């Protein structure tokens, strides 16, 4: 049951699921209508909260519950922690407001977004003809009955927004995984199949992946803009003869819902990204901002920044990278604030920079983004900050680390500021020397000139010898020479430059390293 902009408390609880919303007190049952989520702020007047879902980010108390009841709040969501749940439930019953418990690993920002998306999904919308469209789950069931196959409605990010639950209709493992994970499972054929659906003006049959049931699909559009897709599974029995017409009608009915969902998601993302930017820059009440993302103000955190190897990322690519990071952290129950700031994906993670799992999540995300969008993505990891107050320094370090992994002195996909200190030093030296002749001057110039005049390979021999840490037998093996031949060659080079002088060796090593890196980066 729904009303404009609201859903029943029962719909809210069922949609979020017991893992995200555990009822502690329901003084008026599951029927009260609930609406807009609101982050609790003790400094703000408790006004305009009739029917609101109040997210209490701080320590919950009986006083807060009493004030919520007086303000007409429909439901209060808390993270009980060490508080007495029974005492909170008693206070909620006395206040006449429902009380739900959220898990500690779920950030308040994520819960806010989930509730907003739910309201956008199931609140009645107006279709282009001015009649009220059914909510997406009801629509999915109606279409499934008419076409004779299970139906799913998805957004452009392949998230499953709604699905049918008609008894007796068969689904395959691909659909089952999509429902459980609320996202279409990854498969090599996804890009091609979805592209075909989005290009078509009407319905399209999809027979990939071959090991699963075929599907009849259609793109959902509004004013020429693609908003999502609808998919009907054909199991053992063929779909109804008018299945194509039914899907076309369903696409028209679903359009206003998907448009609202996209608007709600965009607004929620904009607010989240803005708050993340404040945290990264140390602006505003950072403790409250951290709490809104589910982070503890005094715990160690690490900043991670993702970007393409070359050029700048477009907004969609950066958003996709941030969404993948967020999903991975939630899956591993790692608390993190993620989003897009200044065109790059960022995360503030409640983990040590050296954590193996953190590195694995980052590299996996980079691989997936590069496979889907191209661009050879990289990640920089700042040093672990003692608290969120030190996040701005960690953000600068993450940016520097990203600059290093995108530079010529490392081939890693991701790296921390600490382990990339040498690469950062070399980049600074190379930048300082680039406009000066000393980068390719003596002593390297003397050896290179001899090679040019006499056809020798002294520069290459020096490069291998220095790269082998001045180990003659090892360098000779790499050069396919006898060690005595290399020793003789080094003596000849010593007649050109002071090869025994440690400063000469240092300068020569820097010249060879910087010039080689510069050539690779061109």
TrEMBL record:
Q: Do you know which Pfam families this protein is assigned to?
A: GGDEF_2 (PF17853), HTH_30 (PF13556)
Q: Which stretches make up the CdaR GGDEF-like domain? A: 286-404
Domain (PucR C-terminal helix-turn-helix): give its ranges: 459-514
> What InterPro entries does this protein map onto?
CdaR-like_regulators (IPR051448), CdaR_GGDEF (IPR041522), PucR_C-HTH_dom (IPR025736), PucR_C-HTH_sf (IPR042070)
Domain of life according to the entry = Bacteria
User: What does the sequence similarity comment in the record state about its family?
Assistant: Belongs to the CdaR family.
Q: State what protein this is by name.
A: Regulator of polyketide synthase expression
Source organism per entry reads Nonomuraea dietziae
């Amino acid at each position: 049951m729904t009303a404009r902009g609201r859903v029943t408390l029962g719909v809210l609880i069922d949609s979020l699921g017991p893992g995200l919303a555990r009822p502690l007190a329901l003084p008026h049952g599951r029927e009260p209508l609930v609406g807009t989520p609101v982050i609790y702020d003790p400094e703000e007047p408790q006004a305009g909260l009739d029917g609101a879902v109040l997210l209490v980010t701080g320590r919950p108390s009986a006083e807060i519950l009493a004030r919520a009841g007086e303000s007409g709040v429909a439901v209060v969501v808390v993270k009980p922690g060490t508080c007495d749940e029974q005492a909170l439930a008693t206070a909620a019953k006395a206040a006449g407001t429902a009380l739900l418990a959220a898990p500690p690993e779920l950030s308040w920002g994520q819960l806010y977004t989930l509730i907003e998306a739910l309201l956008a999904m199931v609140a009645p919308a107006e279709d282009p003809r001015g009649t009220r469209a059914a909510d997406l789950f009801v629509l999915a069931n109606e279409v499934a009955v008419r076409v004779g196959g299970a139906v799913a409605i998805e957004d452009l990010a392949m998230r499953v927004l709604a699905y049918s639950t008609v008894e007796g209709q068969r689904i395959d493992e691909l659909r089952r995984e999509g429902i459980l994970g609320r996202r279409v499972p990854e498969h090599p054929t996804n890009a091609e199949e979805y592209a075909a659906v989005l290009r078509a003006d009407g319905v399209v049959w999809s027979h990939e992946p071959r090991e699963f049931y075929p599907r009849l699909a259609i793109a959902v559009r509004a004013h020429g803009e693609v908003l999502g897709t609808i998919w009907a599974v054909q199991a053992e029995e063929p779909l109804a003869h008018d299945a194509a017409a039914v899907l076309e009608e369903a696409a028209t009915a679903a359009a206003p819902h998907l448009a609202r969902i996209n608007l709600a998601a965009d607004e929620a993302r904009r607010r989240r990204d803005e708050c993340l930017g404040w945290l990264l820059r140390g602006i505003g009440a950072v403790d409250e901002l951290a709490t809104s993302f589910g982070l503890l103000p005094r715990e160690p955190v690490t900043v991670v920044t993702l970007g393409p190897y070359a050029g700048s990322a477009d907004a969609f690519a950066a958003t996709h990278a941030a969404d993948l990071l967020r999903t991975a952290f939630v899956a591993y129950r790692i608390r993190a604030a993620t989003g897009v700031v200044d065109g790059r994906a960022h995360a503030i993670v409640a983990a040590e920079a050296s954590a193996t799992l953190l590195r694995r999540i980052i590299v996996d995300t980079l691989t997936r983004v590069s496979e889907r969008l191209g661009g050879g993505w990289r990640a920089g990891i700042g040093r672990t900050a003692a608290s969120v107050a030190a996040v701005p320094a960690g953000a600068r370090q993450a940016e520097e680390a990203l600059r290093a992994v995108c530079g010529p002195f490392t081939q890693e996909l991701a790296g921390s500021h600490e382990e990339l200190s040498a690469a950062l030093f070399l980049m600074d030296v190379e930048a300082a020397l680039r406009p000066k002749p000393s980068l390719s001057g003596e002593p390297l110039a003397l050896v290179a000139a001899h090679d040019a005049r006499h056809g020798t390979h002294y520069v290459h021999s020096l490069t291998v010898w220095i790269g082998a840490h001045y180990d003659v037998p090892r360098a000779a093996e790499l050069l396919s020479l006898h060690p005595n031949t290399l020793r003789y060659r080094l003596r000849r080079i010593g007649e050109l430059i002071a090869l025994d002088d440690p400063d000469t060796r240092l300068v020569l090593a820097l010249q060879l390293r910087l010039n080689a890196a510069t050539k690779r980066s061109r």
